[in-house]
Specification:
There is one protein chain. By secondary structure, this protein is an alpha+beta fold. The chain has five helices and four strands. It has a single domain, classed as 2-Layer Sandwich (Ribosomal Protein S5, domain 2). A four-stranded mixed β-sheet has the order 1-2-4-3. α4 crosses α5.
Length: about 150
């Protein structure tokens, strides 16, 4: 009960404007587990599409942007998407998403984080056919190497 009240009060302060967006980003995405690295905020996703940059390497397109946090321990957050239009069966979509998440987990060490910034990434599987994991892994590693430059 107390936890719910604290959460509701926090949401009220955010709605009023007492707490900045950067603090909400940090509070939501702090930690080292894969669940803490997931990008879930619709506000940030919209911002990535409007203000971010994109990179395409077959079969994956990535939209990304650096978000200032003001905290020294910044890193990265990401999400993966597969179109329901291209893959009707959820089994196929989930398999591709699992493969993309694993590839990001293995290759994200190539990125050196900027001081006081979080890298927000959105990976999109853009083709209509299933591809082998090696091709997806190669594409994501190339994309992350481009960001490193």
């Amino acid at each position: 009960m107390f936890k719910i009240c604290v959460s509701l009060c926090f949401c009220a302060f955010v709605a009023i404007g007492y707490i900045s967006e950067q603090y909400r980003i940090l509070r939501t995405y702090s930690g080292n587990s894969s669940m803490d690295r997931r990008l879930k905020s619709k506000i940030i996703i919209d911002k990535i599409f409007t203000e971010g940059k994109t990179i395409f390497v077959f079969p994956v397109k990535m939209a990304y942007m650096w978000i200032s946090t003001g905290q020294p321990d910044a890193s990265y957050i990401y999400t993966v998407t597969v179109s329901k239009r291209n893959f009707k069966r959820a089994v196929d979509r989930n398999r591709i998403k699992r493969q993309m998440r694993e590839s990001v987990r293995l290759n994200v060490d190539n990125i050196s984080p900027k001081q006081n910034e979080i890298l927000a990434m959105l990976f999109i599987y853009v083709i209509k056919e299933k591809q082998p994991y090696q091709l997806i892994d190669k594409a994501i590693s190339k994309i992350l190497m481009r960001i490193k430059k």
